[in-house]
Amino acid sequence: MKTLLAHLRGDKYLWLIVIGLSLYSILAVYSSTGTLAYKYQSGNTEYYLIKHLLLLVFGLGLMYLASLANYKIYSRLAQLAMYLSVPLLAYTLIWGSRVNEAARWITLPGIELTFQTSDLAKLALIMYTARMLSRRQHLVQNFREGFVPVVLPILVTCLLIAPANLSSACVLFFTCLLLLFIGRMGMKYMAGMLGSAVLMLALLAVFIYFVPEENLPGRMGTWKARVESFAGGEATESFQTEQAKIAIAQGGLFGVGPGNSSQRNFLPHPYSDFIFAIILEEYGLVFGAGVILLLYLAFFYRCMRIVIKTPNPFGALLAIGLGLSLTIQAFVNMGVAVSLFPVTGLTLPLISMGGTSMWFTSIAIGIILSVSRDLGMDARSEFEHLETGEEEGEGALPVPA
After folding, report:
1. How many domains does the chain have?
2. Which of 95, 143, 215, 299 is deepest in the core (most CB within 10 A)?
3. pLDDT 10s digits, 354-389
4. Tell me: the pLDDT tens digits for 299-308?
C-alpha cells in the first residue's frame, strides 16, 4: 500500500476512499448481475463483472490523468466543455436514443457506445460556475454583471436536462445554488432564484395533478406515478420500493453474506439505481450501510479540508462544487433505496455499474485530487509527514477580493 500511495498524486485519503468504494463496487456488481449474466450471456456469470472491471479500471486511469494536470487548466476547459455540452443536450433531447420516454443517450458512431450527455453537462456546469464566481467576486452584488452571467448557464443546462431526467436537474440546480451561496452571491438574488424555481415546480405539480396521466406529455406520467407512490404510503408503493424494503429487512444488522442476495432476482436495476439495497441485504446495516456512509462522509470531509487549505478562489469553489455534487447524489441514491425519497434513477457514484457516469465521476474526483496536489497534499508528501511525525500545515479559508 505504501508503494502504491507513493506513486499516486493528490490527497492520499481520497485515494484510499476511492479504493474502498471501488472494492464495494466490484463485490456488489458481481453479486447483483450474476443472474442477469446467466440468463442473457449463456451462463457466463462473469460477463458483467469483467465489463464492469474494464470500465472501472479505465475510470481510475482517467482519475489519475486528471489528477496530474494543474487544476487551473480546468478553468479554460470549463468554457469549452460548456460550449459543447449545451448543444449536445439539445441534440439529445430531440434526436437522442429513447428508453421509457426518456431521451438521455446518444450513440457514438463507429464504436456503438452510448453516451449520456447530462453527465458531461453536470461536470461542465459546476466547473464553469466555479470559474465565473471566482472571476466575478467583485461583481457578485451586481445583478446585471454579476448574477445574470453566472445564473443563465445554470438555468439553461437544468432546463435542457429536466425533460428526460428531472431528478438530475433538481440535484444539479440545488448543488449550483449551494455553490452560489459559498461564492458569496447576493442573497436577495439567490432568494428570488429559489422562489422562482419553487413556483415553477408548484405550477408543474398542479398541472400534472389535474391532467389525466394518459394525456400527460413525455415523462410527466412517470413523475406523477412516482410521487403518488411515494406519498401514498405502503398501499400504493411501487414494485421497486417494495422489493428494496424486503432486501433491507432481510439484511438486518450483519447481512446474509456476499453473493447470497435473493432480491437481486426481483429488484429492477439491482446493479445501478438500487445497488445500495443489495449491499444492505448482503452486508447489513453495520458492514454495508455504515461503511458506505462513512466513506462518503469522509470523502466530503477531505474535500472540505482541501477548500480550507486552498488560497485560490477557483480551486476552492471547484473542489467544493464537485464534492457537493457527488456527495448529494450519493445520499439521494441511498435515500431512494430506504424510501426517504421518490424513485429517481440516480446512480451511486463509483459503486453503481455504468459507463459514462462512472468515467465522469472519476474525472471529477481526479480534478479534486489535482487541487489537493497543487497544495502539497500529495500522497507521497503526506505519507512522509506521518512517518516523521510532522504536523500538517493549515491554510486559510479563501476570501476572494
Report:
1. 1
2. 299
3. 778 899 999 999 999 999 987 766 655 444 444 444
4. 999 999 999 9
What would the 3-class secondary structure string for the chain be?
CHHHHHCCCCCHHHHHHHHHHHHHHHHHHHHHHHHHHHHHCCCCCCHHHHHHHHHHHHHHHHHHHHHHCCCCHHHHHHHHHHHHHHHHHHHHHHHCEEECCEEEEEEECCCCEEEEHHHHHHHHHHHHHHHHHHHCHHHCCCHHHHHHHHHHHHHHHHHHHCCCCHHHHHHHHHHHHHHHHHCCCCHHHHHHHHHHHHHHHHHHHHHHHHCCHHHCCCCHHHHHHHHHHHHCCHHHCCHHHHHHHHHHHHHCCCCCCCCCCCHHHCCCCCCCCCHHHHHHHHHHHHHHHHHHHHHHHHHHHHHHHHHHHCCCHHHHHHHHHHHHHHHHHHHHHHHHHCCCCCCCCCCCCCCCCCCHHHHHHHHHHHHHHHHHHHCCCCHHHHHHHHHHCCCCCCCCCCCCC
Give the pLDDT confidence score for residue 116 in this predicted structure: 86
Res 392: pLDDT: 41
Buried b (16+ CB within 10 A) or exposed e, 211-240: eeeeebeebbbbbbbbeebbeeeeeebbeb
Tell me if 400 is assigned to some domain.
Answer: no
This prediction has a pTM of 0.89
Range of the structural domain that residue 183 is part of: 2-388
Least confident of 77-86, 109-118, 120-129, 132-141: 109-118
Quote the pLDDT of residue 393: 41
Mean pLDDT of 249-263: 92
Amino acid at residue number 59: G
The span from the CA of 391 to the CA of 381, in Å, is 12
* pLDDT (mean) for 4-17: 81
